[in-house]
Amino acid sequence: MATGNINVSVENIFPLIKKFLYSDHEIFLRELISNATDATLKLKHLTSIGEAKVEYGNPIIDIKLDKEAKTISIIDQGLGMTADEVEKYINQVAFSGAEEFLEKYKDSAQDSGIIGHFGLGFYSAFMVAEKVEIITKSYKDEPAAHWVCDGSPTFTLEQADKTERGTEIVLHVSEDETEFLEEGRISELLTKYNKFMPVPIKFGTKTETLPKPEDAKEEDPAPTQEVDNIINNPNPAWTKKPADLEDENYKGFYRELYPMQFEDPLFHIHLNVDHPFNLTGILYFPKLSGDMSMQKDRIQLYQNQVFVTDNVEGIVPEFLTMLRGVIDSPDIPLNVSRSYLQADGAVKKISGYITRKVADKLNSLFKNNREDFEAKWNDIKVVIEYGMLSEDKFYDKAEKFALYPTVDNTFFTFEELKEKIKDSQTDKDGKLVVLYASNKDAQHSYIQAAKDKGYEVLLLDSPIVSHLIQKLESSNENTTFVRVDGDHVDNLIKKDDNVISKLSDEEKEVLKTTIEKVVPTETFTVQVEAMDSQAAPFIITQSEFMRRMKEMQATGGGGINMFGNMPENYNLVVNGNSEFVGKINEASTDEVKEGLIKQALDLAKLSQNLLTGEDLTNFIKRSFDLI
Ligand code: ADP
Ligand code: MG
Fold first, then answer.
1. How far apart are the C-alpha atoms of 382 and 293, rounded to whole Å?
2. Helix, strand or coil, per DSSP, at residue 396
3. Would you say 374 and 403 are in contact if contact means Cβ atoms under 8 Å apart?
4. What pLDDT is attached to residue 563?
5. What class is the 403-495 domain?
6. In b/e form, how buried is each residue of 339-361, taking b as 16+ CB within 10 angstroms?
7. Secondary structure (DSSP) of 301-320
8. Which of 2, 340, 346, 583 has the lowest tally of Cβ within 10 angstroms?
9. What is the strand order of the sheet 201-209 is part of?
10. Is residue 562 packed enough to be buried (19+ CB in 10 Å), middle (13-18) or exposed (0-12)?
11. Measured from the CB, is residue 121 less than 6 Å from ligand 1?
12. Is the distance from the beta carbon of residue 389 to the nearest atom of ligand 1 less than 6 Å?
């Protein structure tokens, strides 16, 4: 048997890092600005604990573009490096000075906001540069150092004459990466990744208009001055304490995040946790439109104020990806693949925490200002209903605040609704019958019929409602949901004053046979019932079960496609007690009889929105003939 060491040589690793470490070349700027920020924050920390006896001042990070020289420079006023430190931190690939710093100062620097992690960020510079220079002067009393490397594992390191503290990284941009010499491209990157980084970042200058002096003449132009163009807001709202922010500040920050969004958010949730993981952020409930897929990818993920991604899949539970806002966690690794992220324990806990916070916020909104919550319900219900379906933990919490509006805009919680209908809406087996409509206009006559009986009719019109109902029924054993046109309310709900049938069982059979001769029985199952004489003579209903299964299939219920292919099937409920039935029986000829039945059927179809095409044309003609 032979044993030995696998020989990893830098010559082999280096090109691999360049090529495969980051899929996106553009992140080099994010990495270098992160290092410049770290260098600045480290100095801030060292001065604050008295270890660095220098003036911290108001350091900024300067990004300079030189198209002629084909260079990008990132200049900071941070702690700098001595020649020895360059040897140690830069020449050792995958040795993170950031982690070393946090380890060394772990008692005091936990919250310092240091970004670095893996000790690889610096080398991303070689994805876009054929040569990289570091000119750096430490805050310590040592000469400046100048390091140059052309992307091969050899480098030069010599003294430099830089006198101000800090580090300048110069990238000599390679031929095929010249897009990064365009001002517009760099601007775009700065806005994307660095908009909320904690140290001010300057990119060029801008002209600012000053107020006119008192004695200026009308025609005198207002004076101007060139000022630093600072591209970031170093203190974004999510890094502040909720107590220090007003509603207006939250709205302002929303506009900062989404400058193209003109509508205010409905409300916000300020996230702030430091145990068992660190996470801050602000989530907003926007006004949602019907199309759910359009709304995704609006939450931005940051790590210590550095933008990471706006694809938060796996970190935020799916039903909350319709929200907007920012999540910032130093515990979310910056440079790793998505599949790794989803398996990460910290990430899983984050998802659970966010779900809980959102539920708690909704609950407090509901409790503190129910009226306002009701007013917003239609704009937020999709998220809540979707959450109730997909996350059991959320369902348990949402039971307290999920609302069920009636067609007349009374909002019940499910408990309240059950209490309200417990005596008036039960079926033969004593089950509670929840009546609902999905469309006020299409089901108008059915709604009216149910309301006339004094029943409560809910308006449940979101696209996933059939799934939700299924869930509600399985969690509330003694409850059944029926759409107003699902079955005739008189059949459904047990009543004390049972209507006495005008027809004998035999007469009912005869009537049924007569009607079946006229109506297409492959579509309609005829049923003669004794109902209130004032109720409509012919009523079309559709089995709740069949309809719901079809709907669920259409909105992605999964499983086999059993119901989608079934022909449409309806019940034709005939009111045996209506005067109209008497007219059928008394009709002088079979022709008159048939005409009456056809007309009644068409009227019933009309109220179910089922009368179309040739049937509609015939109906109109027949109706004109009648008048
Ligand atoms: P990380 O940031 O994860 O530590 P990097 O590869 O990005 O790894 O950087 C390596 C190390 O080089 C840093 O930890 C830091 O010690 C040093 N360094 C890089 N850029 C600067 C800078 N602008 N000023 C001071 N030190 C720097
Ligand atoms: Mg770094």
1. 12
2. helix
3. yes
4. 52
5. alpha beta
6. eebeebebbeebbeebbebbbeb
7. EEETTEEEES--BTTB-GGG
8. 2
9. 155-160, 144-149, 129-137, 166-173, 71-76, 61-66, 201-209, 224-230
10. exposed
11. yes
12. no
Cβ 120 under 6 angstroms from ligand 1: yes
Q: Which residue's CA is minimally distant from atom 21 of ligand 1?
A: 35
How far apart are the C-alpha atoms of 204 and 183, rounded to whole Å?
Answer: 10
Residue bearing tokens 């910290």: 346
pLDDT at 295: 58
Contact 221, 263 (CB under 8 A): no
For a ligand 1 pocket test, name from 89, 123, 140 the mutation site with the most ligand atoms within 8 angstroms of its C-beta.
Answer: 89
145 CA to centre of ligand 1 in angstroms: 15
Please tell me the number of the ligand nearest to residue 199's CA: 1
Q: What is the CATH number of domain 237-375?
A: 3.30.230.80
In the beta sheet, which residues pair with residue 306? 303
Q: Give the closest residue (by CA) to ligand 1 atom 7.
A: 121
- Distance from Cα 97 to the centre of ligand 1, integer Å: 6
Fold classification of 498-627 is Four Helix Bundle (Hemerythrin (Met), subunit A) (1.20.120)
Residue range(s) in the chain whose domain bears CATH number 3.30.230.80? 237-375
Go through the chain and tell me how many residues it has.
627
CA angle 346, 352, 355 (to 5 degrees): 140
Rounded CA-CA distance 70/174 in Å is: 8
- In the chain, ranges of CATH 1.20.120.790 domains: 498-627
What DSSP letter does each residue of 473-508 carry, written as one string? Answer: HHHSTTEEEEETTTS-HHHHS--SSPPPPSS-HHHH
What integer pLDDT is reported at residue 559 of this predicted model? Answer: 47
pLDDT of residue 16: 66
Cα gap 480→487, rounded to integer Å: 12
Paired tokens of 306: 């550095």
The CB density around residue 237, as the number of other CB atoms within 10 Å, is: 24
**CATH 3.30.565.10 in the chain, residue ranges:** 12-205
Does domain 12-205 fall into CATH 3.40.50.1220?
A: no
- Unique residue bearing structure tokens 């206009």: 441
Distance CA 509, CA 480 (A): 30
| pTM of this structure | 0.82
Q: Which DSSP state fits 406?
A: B
Contact predicate 336/223, CB 8 Å: no
Estimate the share of the chain in helix, then strand, then coil, as percent rounded to the nearest 5.
40, 20, 40
State pLDDT tens for residues 552-568.
777 665 545 555 566 67
Assigned token pair, 600: 């009644």
The minimum-distance atom of ligand 1 relative to the CA of 117 is 3
Look at residues 378, 381, 390, 385 and name the one whose alpha carbon lies nearest to residue 351: 390
Contact call for residues 335 and 118 (beta carbons, < 8 A): yes
Q: Which ligand is nearest to the CA of 103?
A: 1
pLDDT at res. 10: 62
